[in-house]
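4.2 Preliminary Data

To establish feasibility before requesting continued support, the project team ran the inverse folding procedure on a target of 423 residues. The structure was first converted into the token representation described in Section 3, and no sequence information of any kind was made available to the design step. The complete token record follows.
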């Protein structure tokens, strides 16, 4: 069994179509993506309960890597086991891989992605509206009293004013939640859950997961050698494999680490190129950490060795994404069965609920920062962005499918750019 019972079984093909569609419209970084999944999976489709969604989300928040993609993998696993996890994860990021690969090629070939700026100008206000809806929806469910509200406020202050790293906030919230539960005398008491139908994982199961992950990790290196060898490709793959395990704090945190190494230490690309890559990554759906694919692309384009620059760059880009996202599948497929067996342990549930409350504060900070950047231009209010953001918020509030709201925002931005309304 995969961990969920449904009144009407969800077909694998329907789920696969949903994950691929999600991968094409999941703009807005983790906050927007989590809000989008909550709206679609919990509220509209009812594929997963609120309790299961938050339980999975809390676990993914503790992991390195893109937490929204990991949440998709977790839900895919709950719905259809291992094949569901694989399809959910691939659907979540493969459209972004293809799109960013095309944008990277345009960047090095023509150096002109002007229309993309118009589409981005339309997407950003919609993302602000999605984040607002996330605050309202998750806040209403996660802030169950003064204790959780205080945690959300503390998390907001910590990240906004004290610049406390996001992983430290998550771990502190987990510790506070567990401690508060134990102080109330809950100890390891279990509460009744309605569907504890997952099979207990064994030591053999864990060993198999580790073996498969190691084999999949080594495979690209063997392929590089079979293709005649390429020192830079091997170095890029090894570097981003390591980076995938230290990407706590999201794309903004890992970008600083990668920028220091790729630009300053290795000289793979220039600082200006790294900034351009981040701007391009923001125009694509999928995890914002997709920027690493552009770094790999440019590293091998600038240093192709004996290969043609285009072939070398494409190979490096694909290897970078492979190294970046492979660990996420490993974390979920290994950890989810164990976590499901612990669902209902009161001290753990209390700790994870505290994490969710803290995340509300972090999303609030993101909304303020992102909203200020999008809705306020250097010369004053950006009335185009404000009007589009308000229209998007109204559309979402009235229940219009978020994919049409996102695509509509992009179309409006492109039209405004083409007509000269946007500079």
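Position-by-position output of the design step:
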């Amino acid at each position: 069994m995969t961990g969920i019972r449904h009144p009407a079984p969800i077909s694998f093909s329907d789920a696969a179509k949903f994950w691929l569609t999600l991968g094409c419209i999941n703009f807005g970084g983790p906050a927007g993506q989590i809000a989008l999944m909550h709206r679609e999976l919990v509220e509209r489709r009812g594929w997963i309960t609120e309790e299961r969604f938050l339980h999975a989300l809390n676990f993914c928040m503790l992991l390195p890597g893109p937490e929204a993609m990991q949440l998709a993998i977790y839900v895919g696993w709950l719905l259809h086991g291992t094949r569901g996890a694989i399809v959910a994860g691939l659907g979540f990021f493969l459209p972004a891989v293809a799109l960013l690969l095309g944008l990277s090629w345009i960047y090095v070939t023509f150096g002109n992605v002007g229309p993309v700026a118009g589409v981005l100008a339309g997407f950003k206000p919609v993302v602000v509206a999605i984040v607002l809806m996330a605050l309202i929806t998750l806040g209403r469910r996660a802030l169950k009293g003064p204790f959780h509200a205080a945690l959300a406020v503390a998390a907001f202050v910590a990240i906004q004013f004290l610049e406390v790293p996001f992983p430290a906030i998550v771990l502190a919230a987990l510790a506070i939640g567990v401690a508060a539960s134990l102080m109330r005398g809950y100890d390891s008491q279990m509460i009744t859950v309605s569907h504890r139908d997952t099979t207990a994982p064994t030591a053999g199961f864990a060993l198999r997961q580790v073996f498969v992950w190691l084999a999949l990790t080594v495979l690209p290196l063997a392929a590089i050698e079979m293709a005649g060898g390429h020192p830079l490709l091997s170095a890029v793959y090894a570097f981003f494999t390591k980076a995938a395990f230290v990407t706590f704090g999201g794309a903004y945190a890992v970008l600083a680490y990668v920028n220091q190494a790729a630009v300053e230490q290795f000289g793979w690309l220039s600082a200006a190129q790294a900034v351009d890559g981040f701007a391009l990554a923001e125009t694509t759906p999928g995890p914002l950490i997709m920027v690493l694919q552009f770094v790999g692309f440019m590293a091998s384009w600038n240093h192709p060795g004996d290969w043609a620059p285009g072939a070398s760059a494409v190979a490096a880009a694909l290897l970078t994404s492979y190294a970046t996202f492979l660990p996420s599948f490993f974390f979920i497929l290994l950890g989810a069965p164990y976590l499901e067996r612990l669902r209902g342990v009161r001290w753990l549930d209390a700790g994870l609920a505290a994490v969710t409350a803290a995340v509300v504060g972090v999303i609030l900070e993101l909304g303020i920062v992102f909203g200020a950047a999008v809705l306020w231009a250097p010369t004053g209010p950006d009335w185009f962005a404000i009007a589009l953001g308000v229209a998007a918020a109204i559309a979402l509030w009235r229940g219009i499918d978020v994919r049409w709201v996102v695509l509509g925002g992009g179309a409006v931005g492109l039209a405004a750019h083409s007509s000269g309304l946007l500079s």
